[in-house]
Amino acid sequence: MRAAADWIALALVMAWVGFAVAGPVGAGAIALAVLLLRGWVPVSTLMALLAPLGVMLPALALRQMAAGMGVAVIPFGSLELVVFLLAYLVFLASAMGVVPVGLYRFGYAPVPVAVMVLAACGYGALSGQVFLPIVAVMGQALWVMGWGSSNWFDHVLHAVLVPVTIVVLILRMV
Prior knowledge:
- Keywords: Membrane, Transmembrane, Transmembrane helix.
- This protein has helices spanning about 1-35, 40-50, 55-70, 80-95, 110-125, 130-145, 150-155, 160-174.
- It is mainly alpha-helical.
- The chain folds into 2 domains: about 1-75, no CATH class; about 75-174, no CATH class.
- Helix 1 (about 1-35) packs antiparallel against helix 2.
């Protein structure tokens, strides 16, 4: 079951690329190609490079494609993106041992995860954003059920978010 969810997540992320290039038809074609050509080396390589995909990347892909088709989506503010980028870079440095505090270990413990999920839900309630609370709660649900990683951060974060966030910030400046 988890393998099927991973392949669907990869199909959604790649559909996001197809949507950017050729709209809904491109999204559908690439998603279908990913699902039908799982054994093809380029597709298998993408899975090996991007796994675990977690909740965030597929959710972002769906959100952006929905916005591209006219669904009203509250965009993230530039300040929110800068704060996220800086915090996530510190988190990644911590996970690699560059910063002496191991923040990644908090993703294994129920109480810190619950506090982080509640904080995301509180932020969502204050800002009117439903996206982050949904991702946080879905990540927690997968984590509690034991689907995928035993660390909550693996469900709600992905290293690809760094270049994606940088590109969004650069595009906003241009």
